[in-house]
Amino acid sequence: MRGSEVTGGGRSPSGWKLWSLPGRVLLLVLAVDLVALGVLAVAARTPPAPGEWVTAGWLAAAALPHLHASHLIERRRRDRSGSPYVDLCSVWIFAGVLALPLVLELALVAVIYAHRWLLVNRFDPVRPPHRTVFTAATLALAAAAAAGVLQLTGVHAHLAGGARPGWADLAAVVAAAAVQWVVNTALVGTVIAWTVTVEHPRRLLGSASDNLLEVSQLALGVFVAAALLWWPPAALLMIIPTFALHQCVQLDQLKLAARTDQRTGLLNAIAWHEQAEHALGRTRGRTGVLMIDLDWFKRINDTHGHPVGDDVLAEVATVLTRTVRRGDTVGRYGGEEFAVLLPDVDEAEIRAIAERIRVRIRALRITTPAGEPVTLSATIGAALHPVVPGASLDEVIRAADDALYAGKKAGRDRVAVAGC
Q: What is the rounded CA–CA span in Å between residue 405 and residue 397?
C-alpha cells in the first residue's frame, strides 16, 4: 500500500503542521479521514457473526507477528523511500477484503496502522500521527470500494457459503484488486501532486517495481483469504514468505543505494565505472567517454548556498539523461563532474552529443528560492576508445579528463575532443 509524503507535526493540536498544508490539500486530507469514519460507522451497524470474529482472529494472528518481526526493516525502508511509498501490508488487508465483513476489515486496517505508527512512524519527526491516520483512511476507503465490487458480483456470499469458486469469481477478485489499487493510488497521488513538484505525472504512480510489488501482495492476499476460508491455520504459514519478501525488498534497496548518487539519482562513480567496463567489453565499435564539469560551480555554492547547488546538480542530471541516447551510461563522477559512456560512436557523433549537452546545460533556467537567476555552463572533454591500441577504460577517461582541462584553460563553456 502507498503512503503520501505529507509532513509536519507537533504535540499541541494548534501547533500541528497539518494546519499549514495548502488549503485544498488540508480539505482533501480531512475529507478522506471523515469519509473513512463515516464508512466505518455505517459498516458497524451490521454486527459480525461469531464465525467471522474467528476468521478475523486467524488473520490478525498471521498479520501482526509478521508486521512486528519486520518493523525494523520497515523503518529502514521508510528512511530510504521516495514518493509514493509502498509498504507490505496489502497482503493482509486484501485477504481481509475477501474473507471478512467490512467492519472487521476496517478494524484490521486501524489495528495494522496503529501498530505501524507505534513501532515505525512515531520515531520519525516528518511522519506525524496525521500522516498515519491519512494513510489508514485512504486504504480503508480503497478496501471498502474493493469490498463493494465483491458484494455487487456476489463473490462475498459465494465464498462465505463454502462454494467452489469459478472463473467468474476470479475475474471479480481481480476487479476488486484493481479497484483497491486505483482508489488508493488516486487519493495518495492527488495529495502528492498538490504538495510537491514532480517532474513527470508518471512519478505519481510509483515505479514499475513498486507497482509489481503491490500487485504481488494483492495476489498473495488471495491465497491468504483462501486459507482463511477453508483451512485457517494454513494462513499462519504466510508469515514466512511475507517476511522473506520484506528481506528481499530491503536487499534490493540497499543494492540500489550502494550504486546510486543520492543527490542526482545517477550511478555513482564506482557503479558507473563497473557498468562502463561491462559495456566496453561487449561493444564492437568505437566507444566514447565524456567528462563533464560545471563551470564555476563553487561560486554557486558560495553565493547561493549548498541547497541551490544540489538543485543545480539534479537539474543537470535530468538534462544528461534526457539528452544522451538509449543505452548510454551516465553517472556522477564526483563533485560537479559527470561522466557519460557512449558505445558505438565516431568522432563526429561524440562531438555532436557533447555539444548538444553543453547547449542544453547552458539553456537551463534555474532560480533560487529568493528568485535570483543562476547562470550555468559546462566544459566537456571527450575521448574515443581506443586512444591507443589496447587502451583501458581508465586511459580513455584520463584522455577525456586531459581534454576537459584543456577546454577549461581555453576559456570554459566548450567541447574539447582528445587528439583534435
A: 12
Confidence of residue 311 (pLDDT cuts 50, 70, 90): confident
Show the cell assigned to 111: 489495528
CA distance 237 to 337: 51
As a residue count, the chain comes to 420
Q: 3-class SS at 372?
A: coil
Q: Which three cell numbers mark 213?
A: 510489488
Cβ contacts of 236 within 8 Å, gap of 6 or more: 58, 61, 62
pLDDT at 54: 93
List pLDDT tens digits, range 334-344.
888 999 999 88
pTM, 2 dp: 0.60
Provide DSSP, 307-325: HHHHHHHHHHHHHHHHHSP
Q: Which residues contact 311 (CB under 8 A, 6 or more apart)?
A: 366
User: Would you state the pLDDT for residue 246?
Assistant: 63
16 grid coordinates: 500541528
Q: In 10 A of CB 174, how many CB atoms?
A: 14
Q: Could you tell me which residues come within 8 angstroms of residue 403 by beta carbon, excluding any fewer than 6 positions away? A: 291, 381, 382, 383, 416, 417, 418
